Structure formats: C-alpha cells, structure tokens
Amino acid sequence: MKTTTSITRRTLLGTGAAASALTLATPSLLRAQSYPDGNIEVYIPTREGGGADRNFRAFSSIWKEKLGTDFEPGFYPGASGRVGYEIYMGKAEPNAYSLIFGNMGPEVLNWAVQEPKFDINDYFYFGRVDTDPCCVFVGAESPLQSIEQIVEEGKKRTLTVGTSRMAHPASIGILALGEETGAKFNLIPLSGGKNTVAGAVTGEVDFSVLTSGSVIAAGDSVKTVLIFGENRVGEALDNAVSINDAYGMNLPEMLSARAFGIHRAAAEEFPDRLDILQSTFDQTFEDPGLMEAYVASGGTPEYLNKGGVDECAQFVKDMLELGARYKPLLTGA
Amino acid sequence: MGDTSTILIEVFLETIGFWWVIVPTIFLGLIVGGIPGFSAANTIIILMPLTLAMELQTGLIFMVSLYCAARMGAGIPAILVNIPGTAGAAATPLDGYPMTKQGRGQQALAISFVASSLGGLLTTLIALAAMPLLARVGFYMHSVEMIVIMLFGISLIASIAAQDMVKGLIAGFFGLMLGAIGADVVYATPRGTMGFLELYDGVPLIPALVGLFAVSEAFIIIEKRVILTEEGQAAMENPTWSATFEGVRETFKRWAHIVWTSLIGLVIGVIPGAGASIASFVAYQQSRTFSKTPEKYGTGHIEGLIAPEAANNGVTSGTLVPLLVLGIPGGATAAIMLVVMQFHGVSFGPSLFQQEPKVGYGMFMAMAVAYFIMILTILPLSRYMSRVTTVPTIYLAPMIISFTLVGAFVPREYMFDIYLALAFGVIGYIARRTGYHVAAILIGVILGPLLETYFLRALKKSEGDISVLFSSTLGNILWVALIVSLVLPLVFDRNRKKKAMVIQ
C-alpha cells in the first residue's frame, strides 16, 4: 500500500515551532536529569592543610567517582569558622552546586553563644563523615594522673583547664562534669588543638580537654583520663572510661562531627539534586576505598561514621540546647 | 653515648647522600620564601601528596631543607626592595634596606646568607646536643614569662622613637590599636572590626607587612629614578665578587654577635607558640641595647642585619625540639611535618628517640646539612640578585606593587586583603612623609596581639588577679632583666656624652 504525506504550511510551521521549543528546553531538561553537570564548590571554614582539609580530600576522592564530578574546595578560615559560614550563606548561590563542609560540634556552638548574620535554619547538614569524641587528658609529667585525682583536686582549688576555644563541645563536657561533681574548673582558651596539647604537656594549665583524634596524635606525651562519649579505640586513649559510665550521667556525646551542609533553599528548589547528593554520599560509605583514604589522611578508622539528615539535625539541636544552657559560662556574661 | 655517636655518623652520611634532594629544594625554598605570602608551610601543604608519596627519610629531608631555605629566602626581598615576605623577616629591612640604598646590597645579602646559615647551623648543633634540656624551656615559659618576652620586643618602639619620641610613640600606639582589632582571644567578642568579617581574626599580618613596608616604599621610590642613592649608584655600576667577600668577612668578624642572637632565636623557638617574628624583634632590640653604637641602628648597620637574620634561623631549629621531644609542633611548618610523620607511623614524644632514633636525629642532621650546603650554593647568587636594585623605578615600583598585592592575597585568598594592603600602603606613605616610623607601627601590629593573648590568658588563669604578673620566679627575673635592658642604654648614652665632653 502506498501512502503519501503532504506537507502543508500549517504542518511545517507547527512542526518547526515544536522543534524549536524542544531545542530551547533541552538544556534545562537535560540539566535536571544530568545533575551535576559542573564541579561542586565546597566551602571549608578552616585553613588549608588542617584536619577538615585532609578529611574532605579523603572523602571527596571517593565521592567524586560516585557523583561523576569534581569537588572544588575553597578555604575561608577565621573567627572559629564564622567567616566561612557567613560567606557561604551570604555569597554562594543556593543551587546545590555549592556545599559547606564544617564541624558541627564547635561551629554550631558558635551560633548558640553569638548569633550569626544569617538564619541558622537556612542551611542544614545532610551528610556526616565522622565523629570524634572529646576527652580529658593530662601531660605525661602532670601530678594529676586520673580523673578521680582531678575531681578531688578540683574540690579543693579551682583547676585551670586548657581548651581549644570556649565554645567547644569539650568545654561543655568539662563544665558538665564540674556541675555533677562539684569540682571547680576554669576554662582557659588556648587557640587551637596544638596549643591545647602544649598547655597540658608543659604545665601552662592543670589539664586540657580536646577532640580525641588530636590527643591520639600527641602520642605518649599525654595521658587520656576521661571520654565525653564512647571510647572506641581502647588502648590508643589509655582505656579511659566514658563520663556517663564513670559518673552515672546522661550527657550526649561531645563530638567533633564533620559534615556536609547545604542551603535549605537549594534543597527545597532542587530536591532531585539533594537526592543525588545523598544517594552518592551513601554509596561512598559502601566503598572500601573510603576507609583506606580516610586512614591515609591520618583519620582514626573507628571514627569514620556515616550520618544522615536526621542524625545531623538531632546533633545540631543538642549542641544548640547545651550552648544555650552554658552560654553564661562560655561568654563570661 | 657510643651508640648515639654511631647513629649520628650514620645519619650524617646518609643525609649527605641526599644532596640531590637538598640542592633543588634549597632553590625552591629561596623562591617561595622570597615571594610575599608564600612560605614553607603553604608550599609543603600544596606538595603534600608528593611528600606523602616519598619515603619517610626523603620526605623529611625535603621538608626540612625547604623550611630552612624559605626562612633565608624571606630576607632577600626584605633587603633588596623592602618587602619582608613573612613576619619573621619584618626586622630584616630595618638595616638591610638602608644598606641596599647605599649600594651595599651585595654585601647585605652576603651578610644575611652567612648570618642565617651560621646561626642556623650553630643552633641546630646546639639543639642536637642539648635537646632534652631545651625541651624543658617550654615547661617554664608560660603566659606570664611570655608577657615579659613580648615587652622586650615591644620596647623596640621606644628605641626607634628615640629620634622623635612623640611621633615614635604615637606610631607605636597606633600599631598596638590596629593589633587590637579582631575577636578577643577569650570570649571571641569582635572589637573594632567595622563589620568586616575578614577582620574577625585580627589584622592579617602579610597585608599589613607588605602594605606598610613595600607598597609605601613603592610610592616613595616612584618619585626617584632608581632606589639607590647617588653613592649607591656609583658603587653598583661595577659589581665585583669582592663585595660579596667583604660581606662574608664582615659577618665572620662578628661571629660572637651571630652566636648570641641566634641563641635568642633558639630559646624563643623552643617555646611552643612563640615564633620568628618575636625572636627577630627581641634579638634586634637586645643587639641595639648592648651596642656601643646604638645610634647607627636603622641606618644600614651590619649588626642590625645580623641580629634578626641569625635569630629567625635559630627559631627554625628551635621549633623542631618540642616537635620531636614532646610531640608538640612549635609552628605551622612543624605541624605539617607532624602530619607526614604520623602518616608514616612514627610516634612522638619521649619515646621517639628510643624507638626511632634515626628519625629524630635525622631531622636535625638534615637541617645542619641543608644549612651547610646553603652557604656554598647561594652565596654566589648575591652578586646577581643585588642587580635588581639598579632597575629603574618606573619598572620596579609597579613590579613591587603587583608582587606584594598577590602576596597579600595568597595566604587567605580574600580580595579584601589586597585592598587592606593598599590601605596600609597609603598609611605607610603618609607616615613616612610626615616623619612617623612605619617599623614602630608594624611592631605594634605584630607583637600587640601576641602580648594581649598572653596577658588575657594570664589574667584568665588568675581569675582577674593582676598580681599574677609577678607570681613566678623566672618571670620576676625577666622583669628585672627588662628593666635593666631599658635603663642600660640611657646609662651608656650618658657615659658616652660625658666621655665626649671630657675629650672636647
């Protein structure tokens, strides 16, 4: 059977219009389906070469394979992470092509003691990479060599306690211990992990509190005597016990917890993009290469610990509540 | 002892065998040290994947050589074009640059190279021999003692202000006020930031440094054809090797000065958290205090160049002591070395020298060998490097400005820092044109925040009791030494005037 097709002017114009519309719409349709079609910028609110940098490079080296694009880190240190967050919230486009990689512990505590310029509900964390519990440690030559001795001495005189900065989960942990036992502690901010270790080792302070990863790195110059969480590494932290076990307390884990965050506006406008980020984030954890990269970057294997939106939100809520509770002590108000 | 000697000889021979790593790294270090804003620390960070891929020994030799060479490299632009590349080199141009303007740039470079190398080599050997003892320094130098050490450096403002006390003190206080900008170190309350987030961590040092010194200098030299004086031009027309040898000879004649000031650097370097900027200013101040010719400082005086250069290289070896003996990195570069050593499974602290003595001794040996090779390799360069001073200012000034602005940008990668460097350039220009000393401003900017940190820490520890400042024996000894070093120049000055009157 022979069929013929005649092209009328109307058909031609109609087909042409449809083709043009399809051509014009293709990029946006494809972009929605092929996210990401460009690199993802990651705002890191600490210095290049620090713990967050190493942690980020280890994680993103595997994640980029799952996501099919590269990550471009930008470092915005200053004011205990405040500068990086302000720049991310103030200048980065909320389009899921820019993320923030921060430490939920100290950085969220910042918001509790000093409100930022942006609304803290305008971003949220969707992927936690690791959790590193804070701990109490003494210098190898300190006369105080156990938590019992510290508490006993703290009841007789006010002990000086080195901390990385006032608004830090470790600071909250030691203040909570003081409340529970009646021991008196005077927090001395020593500006950073290495100074906090140095303070305890050289006797500038009676003892210090810090994230345990940094304490493990200090080797046998220090001795850990209490963990504000679970001791997942045993001997590496001198088999120190948990504060909750030792004193029958119910303190949430005081953690350094690094996580990726995103603008809430981006998640609401592009939920499909967030889905892709989350699913590839999960796949990254399933890849055995992640542990290798994490350990190679100096991470403690036991601390690699995946968390999703809910775990992060709960952690942020706990930090904000604790920050508000201890605000007078952390701000000197 | 016998075992240690065997290990040292073995490690020395092994390290010499790595000359193929050390020599190119020295040149890399000189370049990154000489570019403002770059440093050994950020170069090692950039090259971290390469360093981690190397064997431990190669990686450590690479990092140590880079560290030493970068420290020395920072002095080159400070001397030749008044651009201190790092805070540690901030005291170098005080006498180095006037020498350059007088046409003695080649001698100044030779003096800087020899003083740095000898200071570094000597303190490395002392650190190697007295490591356990030096590691104890940090156990005694706490916040109270550090307050007095800071005051030694800050008192240099008064010396600089000697010619015009009111203007000098105004400049110093202005610097201290600038240094107080930023969040306070205890409760992180922002002060004087004018709403700029970029100032929350205080005035960034590199933009302040390059702005006050280099940008303002570029504004000044553009008014002239070359940076050299007329005599300087004549001297630079036919540069010869003899100028380099003259510099070497002059430095060797002052060997005792090198020993003394590099030891100041070593002792300050072993204190965790203290650094090259403190050491170089304190060494300069001490050198001037006990000089028979203090009035010559700031005019191109050789001792004024030797003191900061020997001291900041003394710091380099000092920072390794707390890293290796206590596991505490004394500075940013040492902190990165710690990461690399951890990656290779090396444990730190007192047990390091029992478990891995070759690693511990090897780092000091690498430093000693690097300093030794540096003397031989870079001294001949002084003749060629000093030629930069003959470049007409219409080319040199824009080059200085662009280099320094890039340098201001690099450490934090904020455009704000470029604008800040320009603003400091304008402040520096006005200060120079109206007779205020930019070095006095800079001392305030650099040492002010450190003084405040130790002061607030001491007060926090004592819960606000000001008498804590006089609560330690060592602190009290240092207070007396400070008073003596402030009073002595007045006594010396009076005696000199008396003698002059008697002679007349």
Structure description:
- The complex is a heterodimer of chains A (333) and B (504).
- Chain A is built from 13 helices and eleven strands.
- Chain A has 333 residues and is of the alpha/beta class.
- Chain A folds into two domains: 40-132 and 255-331, Bordetella uptake gene, domain 1 (D-Maltodextrin-Binding Protein, domain 2); 133-247, Periplasmic binding protein-like II (D-Maltodextrin-Binding Protein, domain 2), CATH 3.40.190.
- In chain A, strands 1, 2, 3, 4, 5, 6, 7, 8, 9, 10 and 11 form an eleven-stranded mixed beta sheet that branches.
- In chain A, helix 4 (104-113) packs across helix 13 and helix 6 packs across helix 13.
- Chain A is elongated and about 100 Å long.
- Chain B is mostly helical and 504 residues long.
- The model of chain B has no long low-confidence stretch (mean pLDDT 85).
- In chain B, a hairpin with a 6-residue loop joins strand 1 and strand 2.
- In chain B, helix 2 (19-34) crosses helix 22 (357-378), helix 8 (105-129) runs parallel beside helix 19 (302-326) and helix 19 runs antiparallel to helix 22.
- At the A-B interface, helix 3, strand 6 and helix 7 of A face helix 3, helix 20 and helix 26 of B.
